[in-house]
Amino acid sequence: MDNENNNEEFLANGEEMEEFSTIVMTDEDGNEVEYLVVDEFEHKGTNYVVMMLEEFEEEENVEAVIFKQIIEEGAGDELVYEEISEEEYNDIEEVLRKRLAEFDIDME
Q: Are 85 and 7 in contact (CB under 8 A)?
């Protein structure tokens, strides 16, 4: 929520392997949690972000979390990420399946 960075990884020969945007959020206990952005898309006027925890970047099977972006108007128009509801998931499921197929990600 507070911070957005680019995280680049390079192979031994110097070729770029992958690049992820990084978003650092604060959880309900006040701890900072770092997420890697897997995908971003717009559906029916709402922006959605598919993320995974940074600590699991090297793992083969990782759970992704889907957030919607909300701009809280006011001092600085803060960008806030909110987990989606089951109803919202059902609404975007088909779009999400098509997009994640491009990344070779399975949905269960």
A: no
